[in-house]
Design goal:
The protein is of the alpha+beta class. It contains eight helices and 19 strands. The protein is 28% helix and 38% strand.
């Protein structure tokens, strides 16, 4: 380092010291800064003491007096205020092939166990393990009615926020959410046969003509179903065999794979289906209309797809009005589905065009016939392949 560089660095150092000394705050400025910091800290403490807006009814119950809680519930839930608080409990309905677990909050299905089936679950070492097969068990699943209720914060009440009283008897469970003065919303599920995946399901509006505004002509049902990965080849299961099937009342069945569609006509049934199982909702008469959507999940996601439906149910403002339906929650069994006589068997993918027709009406019956004599499905497939080659 030469003499000029040493002098330059010295001058820079001297300038820094001089600048620091000249810009140093005075004692008065230091005191003012300290007072400002104290006031900010006090403001933060005061803010933390403010009342937090209520997020759910449990928070209301814990933080406010009973009289104020009742007013808040009445504001948000109107006539259904008494049903907006309670305890969640489980109710079981089952037969020889199916076990349904319900939640009293929302009267929703928490899970459906198919007793005669297993699913493949991938382990940490990439092997697969057989586990009980449950449908509709995802916590993200939704099955809720949006009830128009006058003089409430949102103008509507979601049944998923209500606590239902449950009564069970002889293969039947009835859920009721009170709206006061003998009025209530009822959901009833029943299984009348021992070996059946069909469930009779009704929603009833008792005395609610005085609660639901006169201009409401339909009640909206929101249904979200997250499909589990059940097979080893999840990509094939996702892309080829999972989606939303539906049937308009005046037309044949149709489906969407990865799409959204507005069904602006009466709809007879909607089905959330995958390769070997489906969950279907069938109207005894017809739904007014629906919007259906099927969205594939990412490869690394634990779910296969999200199938959704926004369904409009006709409402005529009767004092005692019931909309009857059926649910099917089970395997894609052609004969069982065909027995419903609504073309629900079309949720099974047999292939396109003439090949689908041959598979449905020739290959399927022969396969079932051989299965009655041969216990191994693999051998049945070999025999069937040999017959086809021979033909």
């Amino acid at each position: 380092m030469d003499k000029n560089q040493i002098i330059g660095f010295g001058l820079i150092f001297a300038l820094l010291i001089g600048y620091t000394y000249l810009t140093k705050p005075t004692e008065a400025e230091i005191r003012a800064m300290e007072a400002r910091q104290d006031s900010i800290a006090q403001a933060q403490i005061d803010t933390s003491k403010e009342i937090i807006p209520f997020k759910d009814t449990s928070q209301i119950e814990e933080n406010v007096p009973d009289t104020l809680r009742d007013k808040l519930l009445a504001k948000d839930f109107g006539a259904f205020a008494s049903a907006a608080s309670g305890e969640d409990s489980e109710v079981i309905l089952e037969n020889e092939v199916i076990k349904i677990t319900f939640s009293t909050k929302g009267a929703q299905i928490k899970s459906v166990l198919l007793k005669n089936y297993k699913k493949n679950v991938q382990q940490a070492d990439n092997t697969f393990k057989k586990e009980p097969l449950l449908l509709l068990e995802d916590d993200k699943d939704k099955f809720e009615y949006i009830i128009p209720v006058a003089n409430t914060t949102k103008g509507t009440v979601n049944t998923s926020d209500l606590y239902f009283e449950a009564t069970t008897k002889d293969g039947e469970v009835v859920f009721r959410a009170s709206a006061g003065n003998g009025r209530y919303l009822e959901q009833k599920y029943s299984i009348k046969e021992k070996d059946n995946y069909f469930i009779n399901y009704d929603v009833a509006f008792i005395g609610l003509d005085k609660v639901i505004p006169d201009n409401a002509k339909n009640i909206q049902l929101n249904w979200d179903n997250y499909l589990d990965k059940l097979e080893k080849n999840a990509s094939y299961e996702r892309s080829q065999y999972s989606g939303v099937h539906y049937k308009k009342t005046e037309k044949g069945p149709s489906c969407i794979g990865n799409d959204r569609e507005e069904l602006d006509a009466k709809v007879q049934w909607i089905s959330s289906a995958q390769q070997f199982f489906n969950t279907s909702l069938i109207a005894t008469n017809s739904f007014t209309s629906a919007v259906v959507e099927s969205v594939p999940m990412e490869e690394e996601d634990t779910d296969l797809k999200k199938n959704s439906a926004e369904i409009l149910i006709p409402y005529a403002h009767g004092s005692n009005e019931t909309f009857p339906m059926q649910m099917y929650i089970g395997p894609n069994d052609f004969d069982r589905l065909r027995a419903a006589d609504v073309q629900l068997e079309d949720v099974i993918e047999f292939g396109w065009g003439i090949f689908g027709t041959i598979n449905r009406w020739l290959i399927r019956p022969v396969f079932n016939f051989l299965s009655g004599y041969v216990g191994s499905a693999g051998i049945v497939i070999l025999l069937l392949t040999f017959l086809i080659k021979l033909i």
